[in-house]
Structures are given as C-alpha cells and as structure tokens.
Amino acid sequence: MSASTTDVDVIVVGGGPAGACAALVAARAGLSVVLLERGPFPGSKNMYGGVVYPRILDQLIPEWWLEAPVQRWVTRRSTMLLTDTQALTVDFRSEAWGKPPHNGATAYRPDFDHWLAGHAEAAGAQIITSTTVTGLIRDAQGAVIGVRTDRPDGDLTARVVIACDGVNSFLAKEAGLYEHTDAKHFTLGVKETLALPKEVIDERFGVRGRDGVDIEIIGATGGVNGGGFIYTNLETIAVGVVLKITKLGAQQQRPEQIIAALKQHPAIAPLVQDGELKEYSAHLIPEAGLKMMPKMTTAGMLVAGDAAALCLAAGIWLEGVNFAMASGMYAGETAVEAIAGGDTTATGLADYQRRLSDTFVLKDHRKLRRAPELVLSDRVQHLYPTMVANVVERMFRVDNPNPKPGVRRILAQERKRAGVRRRDLLRDGWTGFRSFG
Amino acid sequence: MVSSSGVRERHDMSLPSDVVACLKWVSHPGEPHDERFAGISPADRSALEFALVQAAALGTTVTAVTVGPPAAEKVLREALACGATHAVHVPVHGAMHSAHVADAIAEAVPDARWVWCGDYSLDRGTGSVPAFLAARLGAQQALGIIAVHWQGDGLVATRRLDGGRRELLGVSPPAVVSVEGATAHLRRAGLSALRTAAHAEVRTVHPAATAHADDAVVRAYRPRARALAAPVGDTPLDRLRALTDSGAAVAARGDTVTLEPAAAAARIAAALHEWGYL
Ligand SMILES: Cc1cc2nc3c(=O)[nH]c(=O)nc-3n(C[C@H](O)[C@H](O)[C@H](O)COP(=O)(O)OP(=O)(O)OC[C@H]3O[C@@H](n4cnc5c(N)ncnc54)[C@H](O)[C@@H]3O)c2cc1C
Prior knowledge:
Number of domains of chain A: 3
Shape of chain B: globular
Structural class of chain B: alpha/beta
Largest sheet of chain A: 9 strands, mixed
Oligomer: heterodimer
Strand content of chain A: 25-35%
Bound molecules: flavin-adenine dinucleotide
Largest interface: A-B, 23 and 13 residues
Number of strands of chain B: 10
Radius of gyration of chain B: 22 Å
CATH superfamily of the largest domain in chain A: FAD/NAD(P)-binding domain
Strand content of chain B: 15-25%
C-alpha cells in the first residue's frame, strides 16, 4: 500500500518497551506513527519482576541514566538455592554498577514505560490510549494493512503494523505467525510489592543510597517447578515467583500460597518481615525461547518483544525488557527502511530477522536455548538443591571427634541420598556448561 | 497522552456555542501528585454527555471549558474527541475559590444559554461553582439533577431531595444545570476524532479580572446538614430510635397485610411512594 492510501505509515500496537522503542525509531525517521495502547497510559497495565538492563538504550537515548525513572541501581546480585530448611547464596557486588553507565536498575513499569513512550511522543508519534486493538485488517492478498480497534470508527490503516502486544500476542496468532502454542511454554509470574521504610531496606539488604539488590531464587516454590526473586526499590521490595503453568495446574496450588510460603522461609522471612502489601500482580511469561518463537514477519507486519516470545528466561537471567526494547528498535528500523524502499511485503521486511539474528537478541537465545528446559527440569528443581545444600552443610559441619570427610566422598554420598543418577548429573552438567559456559 | 501542540492563545472571548460543558480537572484521590491518574469526575462526564445530546437536538455546538493547570488541556481534547466543537482553557495554577472559578468561566462564555456542570468533583469540592456561575450569568439554576427530560426549548430536571423525595424543575434558558455522576454515560470517542482532537485548537483565555489562583480554604469533607424534625418519644431510647429510623419508628409505620400478589405489589408501591422512595 502506498502512503497516500493509508492513514499513517506505521501503527505500533502496545505501549510496553518494545512498542515505545519501535515508535520512537520510526517517528524519529520522520514517519507518521500511531501507537495504540489499551491501558489509560503506557505502562499502566504492565508488570514484571523489577530489574531492567537498559544498555541498548545507549543507542536511542544517550545518557538515559540521567533521566530514566529508576528506583535503585543494582550493585548486588545474589543467587539463592533453597531447600525447606537450608539456603546457599552466591553473592556478588560491584561498585562500578552504581556509577554511570551502570548495568541494571530497578524501576516501576508504569514509570519506566511511560517515560520511554514519552520519548516516542516527543519524536512525533501519536499515542492513543484506552484503545484496544481487536484484530487485523488485510488486503485481498492477505497482507496486513491495518488494525481494527474497540473504538467507534475504529479502523486504522498503515503501511506497516508492528505488533508489540506482549505475551500470547493474538495479533501474531491472527496473522498465522505462531504454528502452535503450548501451555508448557509459559510460566506464570506473580509478585507482591511490599512497602518498607528505605532505611529498613538498606539495612536488611546491606546497601546505601540508590544502590539496590537483585536476588534470584531456585527452590522453595512448593513443589511447582519455577523460581523466585526479590528486588529492592527505594521504599518497596518486590517478592515473586515464576511458576511452570502445567505443574501449577497439576498440583492444584494457588500462586499466592506459594509466595506466602516463600516469605516464611527462614532465609527470606527476615528480609520481608513487616512489609505492607501494596500490590499483588500476575502475568504470563513466554519461557521457552527459541522453541516457541513465531515467524517474525509477514507482509505488512512485524512482531517484537514478548509478542515474539523474545523474553529470555534462563534461571539466573530473567530479561525481557531489554530484549523487547532491542527488538522494538530493530522492528522500527526495518519498517523505516522498507517504507523508504517502497517494499513492505514479507520480502521487504525480511531484514528484521537478520537484525535479530546478528545481535544479542537471537544470539543469546541460541546460546541459552537449552537453559529454560534445564532450569525448570525436575532434577534442577527438586533434587539438586537438596543435594548441593546437603553437601555444603556437611562441608561446614564440625563432626568432632570424627575427622573432616573429603568433598568427593560427601558428593558421592549426597548424590546417592538425593536419588540423582551419575549419568543424569553428567548430562545436566554438560548441558549447563554448554549453555552458560 | 495528548500533545500540547496546536494551542493558541486568544483574548477574543466570543464563542459560537449556546451549550457549554464545564469540566474540572481533578487529581486522583489516591495519587494526588501524579498527573497520569488525573482527569474529570464522573459527574462532569455526565454533564458533557448531556451537553452533547442537547446541542445535537438544538442543532448547535458544544464548547468545553476548563479552569485549571496546563495539564487540564487533556480533558478538553477528550471533550473535543467526544464531539465538542470548541475548547477553552482558562489557565490557573493551584486551587481557586469557587466564586473565582465561576467568574473565570462566566467571562469566557458570557453568552452561554445552557451550561452543564458536574454536581461535585472527585476531589470533593463544595459543588458551589454552578451556583456562583448561575448568579454571574444571571441564569436559572437546577443543581444536583438526577434525570433530565427534554421539553421544547427547555427541560424538566429531576432533583434529589432528602428522604428519598424528588423535585421536578422546569428549566428554560439561560440556565446552569449540574448533574450527578450516574445520570448519563459519556459516549466513547471515535478513533479518528481522537486523532484529530490531539491537534485541534484549544483557546487559551486569560480573563482580565479573575484568572488568578488564590489560597482556597481547603477543609475536611463534611456532608451537608439535613434538617430533621425533633424526634418524638417518651424515653431517650424511643427518641433515639425515632431519630435513627430504627426499631420502633419503622415498626410504627409498617403493617402486616395478607393480599393477592398483584394487590400486594400495588400496596408496596403505594407505601414506597408515600414514604418518598418513588
Ligand atoms: C513476573 C515477571 C517478572 C519479570 N521480570 C523481569 C525482569 O526483572 N526484568 C526483565 O527485563 N524482564 C522481566 N520480565 C519480562 C518482561 O516483563 C517482558 O519481557 C517485557 O515486559 C516485554 O515487553 P513488551 O513491550 O514486549 O510487552 P509488554 O510489556 O507486555 O507490553 C505489551 C503492551 O501491549 C499492550 N497491549 C496488549 N494487547 C493490546 C491490544 N490488543 N491493544 C492495545 N494494546 C495492547 C499492553 O497493555 C502493554 O502495554 C518479567 C515478566 C514477568 C511476568
């Protein structure tokens, strides 16, 4: 479709990080852009754990850290392995992350997304809120030429539609880009936001000023495969779990009960004690990476962010916002080039796939493609935490008058006690090494 | 989100519309300092809908007016998207006494024939702007209206009174009408109207005398006093019961009857009518 026959050049659906970056790039290139968001303002409907890694924004908003609505800079990252009564923590802190150009930051999504979309608006994109896209408009050949919304007189046409409508994108499904969807490819993330005075958070988490903490947790999800997290904001903390949906259904457990149990764990209770519940929220996560990704383009349409299942959920990494921002940015760039070249067919938009493939967006997913399954496997979830915690407990236990046993012997004994087969251990170790190594 | 582009300052106060909707920009009670949650109250939304319906019936246009901070322009663009033709912003910073708000509106729309306002706003103002405005415009007032029936060039407005009673007011122009929130449901703006409204002209009017914010006296919300007859009863307990309508008082005006269903329904309706609920 030519510019003169469409309402606008680009329609972006969804005002999350993917949509804001797509709109920002396209608007800066001088295209007419409309971003449609169903919430009353961008970010109003969005939730996540709490840490963004905005390095990719260096390319879009130089020195973003001077203006981004950040709660705390993450200077401390911990990974906790929990059994019912034990906790093993690997703890790392870096002074450097507290200073520009920083690494990760905790931020509230209604603030962060609103700020990012504000940049798109300043660049000339028109943001229309409280408007839900209900379907695609196609031409006789099946190419996407616009969207239908829930407003009166609600059709809008464009040369390119960028679907950034988040996980379980029905626009990508309607366009036939997902071959199939499977509940086992999703996890459910649930989170409590607990208010505590800043001094209490600083003291409990061992930080000062704007420094913050990111704790990832394996174990203690009540027999449901998944993981947990705790992030510090200025005057609140986020405590949550990410749960494999199929297991959650099978075990008939309620997510809020699992969070409640996590909060009572002896290693967690002192951190969250007296926190006043401010918010409870839940959201799906596309967890299976490459296994579930759709085709990224079709004639007239690109898919970015969670809509394209680009969230990286690989155990100690739960990164979706940076993948969304980057893919949104590349989708915007592709749309700009395709429109300039006058070819918005699937071929004209094919460069999007190359951009994703050549950058961290798909490189990280390829490298970590086995990680989600490994991390959520029954052995990593239920057997290894007990085995490792018992090994460490025995290493540090003083059993006088008995002499200290050798680590190899403890390892062998605890492996057997936990019911882990050597073959599985080696195989998982090798998979882990190939993924994370 | 609405762009502030397209704003032009004007001191020309003549307005082509007979019908005016007054919209107050209020912050959300739970998020008083966050403009993202601010907007207009349900009562003002009703007022705008009535204005649009009436203007369509009279074959005229609606002017939306707001007296408020720069961010209040957002509600005017919403009103334009819903069908208002003109938008007037009287910029003020901070709270302002109702009388001065009314002065500012009256100066901006001196020739208005019909002015629609919300009964009260989410921030629990006094609800007195419409009354001041009626005085300034020399117009009739019909305040706290819960239903409107169009009648020729005028209307019949239903007003809520104490004790579940209703009052019917015949209203003719010029008039100021304030309506409760649940009386009308504001139409949903169309997509292209929203897109156009984002760039439409919003007139900025700085009336000479009154567009200054002053230190409004903000007091805790107190419901309006209701006049009650002195309670009748021999003992303090009886008088308390009579006063609170509990126990004896209710029992005294209730009676037990055995009737056929149709007659029972008629009897109940008659009793409710008598007690002022219908
Ligand atoms: C519990 C949990 C914890 C997480 N923790 C982290 C973390 O700590 N760090 C991290 O980087 N990532 C995290 N993620 C992942 C991250 O939230 C997502 O990857 C990221 O938000 C994806 O961005 P997006 O723009 O693609 O989609 P979203 O942020 O989901 O935005 C989609 C937008 O589209 C709008 N929309 C949807 N449908 C329509 C429609 N039909 N019409 C109009 N608008 C529509 C929505 O309202 C929304 O604004 C977490 C996710 C969850 C659920």
